């Protein structure tokens, strides 16, 4: 979720409402979108060697883009946002096993915050934007 919020702020568009709970800023809309993208990634990455299979990779890109558009992220068409999200997806998948020893759930509490991810560990904070 951190990445989606940062990308939103970088491109200066509204998406969801940030709220503070126990000193932690949460954006439920970004969190839900991150979960949807993760489901797509999990499905496509179940194919053996999906990063080297161009057909599977192209379908993943299309599915993620459709998911983003259906969920209004970003509200106005912006190819750069789609490219950045896909770079993040591919970066995570390419480095998950080498960095962490094995794949882990993006939502697991044991996920290190230094890992570039689409979502944040529960309890992590991000600067507030109204």
What does this 3D model show about the protein?
- This protein is mainly α.
- It has one domain (1-7, 27-121).
- The protein contains four helices and two strands.
- It has helices at residues 2-10, 28-44, 54-70, 79-100; strands at 18-21, 24-27.
- A two-stranded antiparallel ribbon has the order 1-2.
- The longest helix is centred in the C-terminal third of the chain and has 22 residues, at 79-100.
- 21% of the residues are buried.
Topology pattern, helix = H, strand = E: HEEHHH
Low-confidence stretches: 98-130
Number of DSSP strand runs: 2
Tally of alpha and pi helices: 4
Q: Could you give the distance between the termini?
A: 16 Å
Kindly provide the radius of gyration, computed on alpha-carbon positions and rounded to a whole number of angstroms. 15 Å
Strand order of the largest sheet: 1-2
What is the beta-strand fraction?
5-15%
Class inferred from helices and paired strands: mainly alpha
Major beta sheet summary? 2 strands, antiparallel
**Number of structurally distinct domains:** 1
The coarse silhouette is globular
Query: Average pLDDT value?
Result: 75
Helix content: 40-55%
List descriptors.
single chain; 130 residues; mainly alpha; two-stranded antiparallel ribbon; 50% helix; disordered C terminus
Describe the protein's topology:
Layout: H1 2-10, E1 18-21, E2 24-27, H2 28-44, H3 54-70, H4 79-100
Antiparallel strand pairs: 1-2
Helix pairs in contact: 2-3
Give me a quick take on this structure.
Helix content is 50%, strand content 6%. The chain is mainly alpha-helical.
């Amino acid at each position: 979720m951190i990445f989606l919020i940062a990308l939103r702020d970088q491109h200066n568009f509204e998406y969801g409402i940030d709220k503070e709970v126990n000193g932690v800023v949460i954006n439920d809309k970004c969190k839900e979108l991150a979960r949807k993208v993760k489901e797509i990634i999990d499905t496509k990455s179940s194919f053996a060697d999906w990063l080297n299979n161009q057909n599977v990779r192209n379908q993943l890109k299309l599915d993620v883009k459709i998911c983003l558009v259906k969920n209004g992220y970003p509200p106005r068409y912006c190819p750069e946002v789609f490219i950045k999200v896909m770079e993040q997806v591919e970066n995570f998948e390419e480095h998950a096993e080498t960095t962490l020893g094995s794949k882990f759930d993006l939502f697991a509490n044991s996920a290190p915050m230094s890992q570039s991810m689409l979502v944040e560990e529960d309890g992590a904070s991000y600067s507030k934007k109204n």
